[in-house]
Amino acid sequence: MKARWDIFCSVVDNYGDIGVTWRLARQLVVEHACDVRLWVDDLRAFERMCPDIDVHLAQQWQEGVDVRHWPSEWVAAPAADVVIAAFACQLPPDYMEAMAERQRTPLWMNLDYLSAEEWVVGCHRLPSVKFKGVQKYFFFPGFRPGTGGLLREAGLLEQRHAFQQDVAAQQHFLQGLGVFPLAGARLISLFAYENAGLARWLDVLSTDGRATHLLVPEGRILGDVARWLGVEGLAAGAVHQRQALTVQVLPFVRQEQYDRLLWCCDFNAVRGEDSFVRAQWAGRPLLWHIYRQDEDIHLDKLDAFLELYTAALSPAARAALVSLWQAWNTEGDMAQPWKMLMEHWPEVLAHAERWCLEQGLQADLATALVQFYESWI
Predict the structure, then answer these.
(1) How many independent structural domains does the chain possess?
(2) Quick one: which of 216, 234, 201 has its CA closest to 341?
C-alpha cells in the first residue's frame, strides 16, 4: 500500500513556505507514488503559484495532491503514516492526539529551514520532542553530505541544459511573457525583498557600456524599483528605459515558468529559500537576498553559505562575490562590488555551473525523506 503523507504549511512570507511544500508534495506523488495531503492555512497565497486553486474549497485535488485548507477551527482528520511540519509550524492539537491514537504511530518530522552551517549535519535526523509516545525528528535540507539535500525533480538538470542550448526555445518562452530584449543585452531577473541598496545597483546598470534588460516578477521589491524610476507605481506589463537599462515588470508565474525564466537569464537575484535553490539549479551566477531575522542572525547563515559556495574560486573572484552579497544584504553600496564581479565574470559563470552539477550528485530532498521513512519502518 502507498504510504500516506500529511504536509502542514503555515504561510509566513507569502511564497517561500508554500513554494517549497508545493514542489515537495508534487514530487512525492509523481516520483515516489505517495498519497499526499497538503494542508495550507492561506489558499490565497497558494493561488499565486497555482491559479487553478479554488480558495473557497476546503478540499480539492491539484496535480495529484489532495490540497486541504487548514482552518483555524480544526476539523477532525485521521493522521497519516508520515507527518511533516514544514518550517517548525505547530500542528493542530487534535491532530496530534490523532497521531498518538494510531495503532502504529507515524513518522513525525520537522522539515527545517535550509542552511549551510556546519552544525546542521550533526542535527539532521536526530530525535526531537515526544508527544504521548510519538517521536518527532529534525530533518534539514542542506548543501553538505549528511544533510537532506535540496529539492530537485528527476531530470531537472538535463532539461535545463537542453533549454539553455536551445536559443529558439528561450526566445519563444520570453516572447510568451512579452519580453523582447535587444540583441546582446544582458538579462537579469530580480526577485527580492525591499532593499534600499537597489538604487546604486540600478545606477550602475543604467550607465554601463552594455545594455541590460531587468526582469522583475511582481513582488515586494517593486516599490524600490518604482522610486528609482520616479513613477507612482508599477504593475505587470510595465516597461521603462533609462539609458542602458530596460526595466520590465512580469506577472507572477507558475513555478515551472519561473524556473525557465531563471534559465534564460545571465544573472539571477533571488530571495528566501525556494527561488534561491532554483537559481542554483539554473547554473548561472546569482545574488541571494536572505530573509532578515532578529539580531542579524541571518548574516551568519549567509556567511556560512558563502564560505561553502566560494571555496573553489580564486581569491579575487571570491572577494568580488562576497562583497556583492554582503552589500546587498546590508543595504550597502552595490556599485563597486558589481564592477568587481564583472571583472571576474568568466570564472564566476563557470563556477556556477560546476556548483550546480556538484550539488546534483547528492540525493534530492524528496528522495531523502522517502529513504528516511523506509529505514524508519
Answers:
(1) 2
(2) 201
Catalytic residue among 6, 66, 273, 274: 273
Give residue-wise pLDDT tens across range 136-190.
999 999 999 999 999 999 999 999 999 999 999 999 999 999 999 999 999 999 9
User: Are 348 and 286 in the same domain?
Assistant: yes
Whether 374 sits among the annotated catalytic residues: the reply is no
Domain, as residue range, for 236: 156-359
Q: What is the pTM of this model?
A: 0.96
Taking a C-beta distance cutoff of 8 angstroms, is the pair 50, 62 a contact? yes
Kindly write down the DSSP assignment for every residue of 75-112, as one continuous string: ------SEEEEETTPPPPHHHHHHHHHSSSPPEEEEE-
CATH number at residue 126: 3.40.50
**pLDDT for 14 beyond 70:** no
Statement to judge: residues 178 and 137 lie in one domain: no
pLDDT tens digits for range 204-223? 999 999 999 999 999 999 99
| Distance (Å, whole) CA 309 – CA 328 | 17
Alpha-carbon distance of 162 to 159, in angstroms, equals 5
Residues 98 and 184 in one domain: no
| pLDDT for the residue numbered 2 | 84
Exposure class string for 312-322: b at 16+ Cβ within 10 A, else e: ebeeebbbbbb
Judge whether 343 counts as a catalytic residue. no
Task: Calculate mean pLDDT across residues 261-275.
Answer: 96
Of 17, 35, 274, 347, the active-site residue reads: 17
Same domain, 169 and 124: no
